[in-house]
Amino acid sequence: MRKSISLAEYVKKRNGVPLGAKRSFRNMLYRSLGAKSFAKFWYYWNPIWSFYLTKYVMRASLVFLPKWISVLVTFIVSGLMHDLAISIFYQEIYVLFTPWFGLMGLVVVLTKKFKISYADHPWLVRTLANSFFLGSSFSIVYLALM
Question: In sequence order, which residues have a C-beta less than 8 Å from that of residue 139 and are 6 or more positions away?
Answer without folding.
Answer: none
